[in-house]
Every structure is written in structure tokens, then in C-alpha cells.
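The instructor's notes for this session suggest beginning with a concrete chain rather than abstract definitions. Hand out the sequence below and ask the class to guess, before any prediction is shown, which regions might be ordered.
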Amino acid sequence: MSRATTIQEVLHQLDAIIEQAILNNDRVGLFAFIYRRTTAEIQKEILLGNFEDNERLEKLDVAFANLYLDAHANYSKKTPVSKSWEFAFYAKNESLTILQHILLGMNAHINLDLSISTSTTMVNSNLITIENDFNKVNDILFHIVNEMQDRLSKVSRLMFLLDFIGKKTDEKIIDFSMRKARQQAWNNANLLWALGNNNNTEAINKIDLLVVKLSQIIKSPKSKILKFALQLIGKFEEKNVGLIISKLKA
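After discussion, reveal the predicted structure:
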């Protein structure tokens, strides 16, 4: 399959990944579904002309998406991928919660891929000129994530335990928030952009290793009570990927 050049092509390729994941009951499809939902929302905003530079934002979004699509294709062909994506893909067969699988994908894609795609898109341009549109995407991500968290209770009946634990202690499932992740992605994009595409390989590798450390926390929080809660939540969750996706859509 050729690389996507438009958001519509990205959506078609994500649909193919999701369809195959449903057929194979493959949990890789959980992140792909959330990402498809986000991408469709960004496309809608572009078509409405709601970004300062809609053409440039689409270029960024396609470059961003292609990093995930390439990683998925390479993983499927058993060829090398970034350590962040390798961690997320290999975790699909482990007994993690639905939320953990989704967050592992978000972690790799936002904290690594977004930095790379932003710096690449803005080569030979002033990076600061895309900051407002970059931040506008934050609001879209927050909307989608909150929407999906509300819907997760349909397929994860004990999700309320995480809220309960969060109110009783300072512990959280992970030290991770969408806005913080995208802020870090912006900081990393500034670094990579300043280094230039021909001199940033070492920096990308270092970012990748840092993202893996966060993935390890997502997979196995240090808090014993959180570990127990996640195991309990996972035990009573829906296991069929097709049913999970259909209920998240509803």
C-alpha cells in the first residue's frame, strides 16, 4: 500500500487496519480506532477552515499519520520499528486493560511521532508560525479522549475504580496527560527542528528511549494498589475487539 498523501487516504488505511484487527481480534485495533476518530475530527475542522493554515495542517496531519501507518506496516512485515512502537505492538498479547493498550499507542505516537512530523513539516519554515494550530489540535484531542473515557464504561465495567483510587491517593494510572504529552512533543519538535533533519538522528533515538520508559510505567505502574486495580478491571472487561469498537462507536 502506498503512503497516504491526504487525510482521506489516511482514514481509508486506518479503516483497513481496524477491519483486519476486528477479524483477528487484535488489540492493535483499539488505538487505531481512537486515532481514526481523532483524525476524522481534525479533517472536519480543516474542511470548516478552522485552522490558521488549513493546507499546512493537513500536510502535518498526513506526515504524522504516515509515521504510525509505516510503523504498523513494518511491524506486520516483521521489519524494524522504533522502540516505542515495538513496545506498544508487542504488548498487544499481554493481559493489559483496554485503556492501557490505547495509552501505549498514544504515548508512542504523540511523544515521538508528533515531534518528528512537526519538525519535518516545518523544515525551511519558522516553526513558531504553526504553534497556534498545533495547540488547537490539543482541544480536539481533549474532546476525543474525554468522549472515549466516558464510553469505556460500556466495555470496562470496573473503570470507576481508577477514579476512586485517584480520589483516595495521589497515585494515578500513569503520569500522563494529553496536554502535557503534546507540550513535550512541541518541546521535542523545537529541538529536532533546530538540529535539522540531517543532524537529529541521535536526538530522535534519545527521545525514543525516554518514551519507552513512560510506556513501561503505563504497562506496570509502581503503585501496588493500581496494579491490583488494573488486573481486576482487565479481568471483567470485554475481550472481543469488534464488540469493544462497536460499543465505543455507539
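Then share the key points. The chain has one domain: 7-249. Residues 168-176 have pLDDT under 50 and may be disordered.
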